[in-house]
Amino acid sequence: MDALDALQNRTASPRLVEPAPSQDELQEILKAGLRAPDHGMLRPWHFLLISGEGREKLGQVFAANLEPESEQEKEKLLNSPLRAPLIIVAVTRFKEHPKVPNIEQVCATAAAVQNMSVAIHALGYSSIWRTGKAAFSTAVKEALGFAATDEIVGFLYVGTPTFADRPVPENKIEDYVSTWG
């Protein structure tokens, strides 16, 4: 698939099933992420891969640490990682640098997630980038082996879409772009 086609036609899929990308394909996806723009070449990102039974364990981490208010909410937390055969947790591990503030390091990690999302699409799979309470929970970060000061930028759910790409309305460039000066 041509790069412009992949960039202009990628869509998110909320429900994903097997198969997930193969190990070789996953290596290509991760390489694409590692080529993201990164001021200072700090490489602040870290990617945690969760599949198989690890998804059930992730659901238990969510249920144990996000304080569900009802049994129904607890079930939703337990089952949410089962929406895809693979989850890539994208985390920024901040590095001290006099010219690269934390926000730029988060942006680099977000760019890596975007690169991976486009690569996933180009390989014929689909993904959806999620955050929610779990991404902002210190307890979840620590249960996954990260420091409280690290930042979960997103959970990238990956697999095969259960339906054809849904149409996305075309954006009018003039609605979002202006010229200055």
Model description:
The chain is of the alpha+beta class and 181 residues long. It has a single domain (3-175), classed as NADH Oxidase (3-Layer(aba) Sandwich), CATH 3.40.109.10. It has six helices and five strands. The chain has helices at 3-9, 23-34, 53-65, 71-79, 102-122, 138-143, and strands spanning 16-17, 45-51, 86-92, 126-130, 151-161. Strands 1, 2, 3, 4 and 5 form a five-stranded antiparallel sheet that branches.
In short:
With 181 residues, this protein is of the alpha+beta class. It has helices spanning 3-9, 23-34, 53-65, 71-79, 102-122, 138-143, and strands spanning 16-17, 45-51, 86-92, 126-130, 151-161. The protein has six helices and five strands; from the N terminus they run αβαβααβαβαβ.
Structural class: alpha+beta
User: What would you give as the CATH superfamily?
Assistant: NADH Oxidase
Q: Major sheet: size, sense and barrel closure?
A: 5 strands, antiparallel
Please report which band the strand proportion falls in: under 5%, 5-15%, 15-25%, 25-35%, 35-45% or over 45%: 15-25%
SSE string:
HEHEHHEHEHE
Tell me what the CATH architecture is.
3-Layer(aba) Sandwich
CATH class: Alpha Beta
What would you call the shape? globular
Could you tell me how far the N terminus lies from the C terminus, measured between alpha carbons in angstroms?
38 Å
How many β strands by DSSP? 5
Low-pLDDT runs: none
Helix content: 25-40%
- Radius of gyration (CA) equals 17 Å
Number of domains: 1
Q: How would you state the average pLDDT, rounded?
A: 96
Tally the helices: 6
CATH topology: NADH Oxidase
